[in-house]
Design brief:
homodimer, 355 residues, alpha/beta, Aspartate Aminotransferase, domain 1, 7-stranded mixed sheet, 3-stranded antiparallel sheet, 9 helices, 34% helix
Chain lengths: 355, 355
């Protein structure tokens, strides 16, 4: 298969565990000895229903999801949730607070503006989103406070979640399963799979049961949490292959010791890289130290330099997709759960040996 | 891989070509020698953008899609299109005609009722949808006429499309690419991939450009045809793996001679099976002869019998998922493009040798 080991630092779709990919390839030809590809099997067949049920159970167990939350598998990514969440839970005369900590937060705000009163309570936009705002006033009549737990583009992360009078709603697309979380302050947690869970094409939504149907809007069935909850995410044909890759990834995570063990690994990988960025006079981090993400690590040349040259230098050593997002420039190493420590070490070595 | 060749007669997700599955498995480990899985690759990377562009071109070529139509890859299946289409093109004071020829038509009607005036112009429901209505009056001020080109559950198919004053809108999920069609009378053609194109998780929408943005509603970005058309289906992360399997399936179809050649094969496979149903006194078809589907063939015992016994008998011979839908009973053989003629022959043999 490979001449050289490739380390893929893509921000998403992103690196997945090698064993997971092998299992996915096997299932694509013959699913668990059924003589058919998983792509060909009915979503109503027993083996597939069992697999989807098990995937839900794994999520519940790995994240300690309380019994009064439903776990849904939907389509359309976090981008569709930006609309579906306020559509389903926020009434026209109610207020939701939104924090603006990056491009994805801003998109969530833009879509939410069609429902209820959306109050943007803080923004780090003026500082090119280089930090997470700490001091801000929330609405007195707030239903919920929305946040993006990790900002993929800018490399910031909420290491502590703010207190609220209402409940929290979070887009965790880029750090779900990377650290332990207490689900109970959240009304809704949602995440596109394509960073820490699996391939693009499935979105996990964890929603507190009392919020389902809350807005009382007459919604299209496909946009109605109640319909999907009632049908165990089988209202229509779900993206079975994507769910299966999530299933395999969660088994892999479980065998590694779950999110607690993964969190320790992630801290240790991020420490390696941030320490090198601090030590190495060639590079610097544009991000406030206390808010730096364990998942996405942007860095730039301290005194300018030929970015294409460094990217080529890394590519020749098998490290790819390190180009920073166009709005930040420089470089970005996404070091999700499935990025092995060796990948980060290879990058640190390259930074040390460069020039 | 296999002890016995399995013929999968599932109505969807359904049989795919063996070569397509092998290529999909390969790409799941290492996509075209890039050293990464296709599941790990950015949707903005050159190889992936090229693949998606090529898939669009293949669709345009295979179906002779005129230049004034956009081809979109969306999520949410036909079920989301039931809402998205009227939401995007039907104004509140306008009328759309809907034909009711089966469970999926009825679902399309239910969702469309939230927009404009929906006029159900015909229904074969009273006859358990065993035929396609021929005589019906359309609205004078009709914007479009909606139909389900093939009714997966009941096994009927529109072999000729009705004339309209407006334009046609069709759910072709279960017979797309199975026969040549003239796209020009259609304003929108849509199809979930999981029957004749690929796995569940991607929906193809072919929409006439002048209809994009037509309703002037302020829609969520993810539900707005204009947004997806403007961004070449990359407004957010598309379901790349599913699109890739579609790409491979269309290459396979192209190499077999395209939809004209496939149509001949499909007619010949269906003829084999329908002739056996007519000849064999054990079995009968509940469907009006002139409306019988080339894709889904329901049949029942002529004078009763032990259905489970026949299903087991077939399963022992490697023929699976032949159980009829609960609303029809009996048996259903879905013989989509990727079902080889040998599969139909094996079924005919089983029917001949049974008892």
């Amino acid at each position: 298969m490979e001449k050289q080991k490739i380390y893929n630092f893509s921000a998403g779709p992103a690196v997945l565990a090698v064993d997971v990919l092998k299992q996915a390839a096997e299932a694509t030809v013959n699913y668990n000895g059924h003589g058919m590809s998983i792509l060909e099997m009915s979503h109503r067949s027993v083996p597939i229903v069992d697999m989807v049920t098990e995937t839900r159970q794994l999520i519940r167990q790995l994240l300690n999801v309380p019994e009064n939350y439903k776990i849904l598998f939907l389509q359309g990514g976090a981008s569709l949730q930006f609309s579906m969440i306020p559509m389903n839970i926020l009434k026209d005369d109610e207020t939701a607070d939104y924090t603006d900590t990056g491009a994805w937060s801003a998109k969530a705000i833009k879509e939410a503006h069609r429902y209820g009163n959306v109050n943007v309570v803080c923004s780090s936009k003026e500082a090119v989103y280089n930090h997470i705002p700490k001091q801000f006033e929330q609405s007195k009549n707030q239903l919920y406070l929305h946040l993006t737990s990790n900002n993929t583009i800018y490399g910031t992360q909420w290491h502590e979640f703010p207190d609220t009078k209402g409940f929290l709603v979070a887009d965790m697309s880029s750090d779900i399963f990377s650290r332990p979380i207490d689900v109970s302050p959240f009304g809704v947690i949602y995440a596109g799979a394509q960073k820490n869970m699996g391939p693009a094409g499935v979105t996990m939504v964890i929603v507190r049961e009392d919020l389902i149907g809350r807005s009382e809007r007459n919604l299209p069935s496909m946009l109605d949490f109640a319909m999907h909850a009632d049908k165990d995410s089988m209202f229509n044909t779900p993206p079975i292959f994507a769910i299966y890759v999530v299933n395999r990834t969660l088994h892999w995570l479980n065998e590694l010791g779950g999110v607690d063990a993964m969190y320790e690994q992630n801290k240790s990988k991020a420490k390696l890289l941030y320490e090198e960025i601090e030590r190495n006079t060639l590079f610097t981090s544009p991000i406030a130290e206390e808010d730096r993400s364990l998942m996405n690590v942007p860095f730039v040349f301290a005194d300018g330099g030929d970015e294409a040259h460094f990217l080529n230098y890394c590519a020749e050593r098998g490290m790819v997709t390190l180009k920073g997002h166009r709005s930040v420039g420089g470089f970005r190493a996404s070091i999700y759960n499935a990025m092995p420590k060796e990948g980060v070490e290879a990058l640190v070595n390259a930074m040390q040996q460069y020039l």
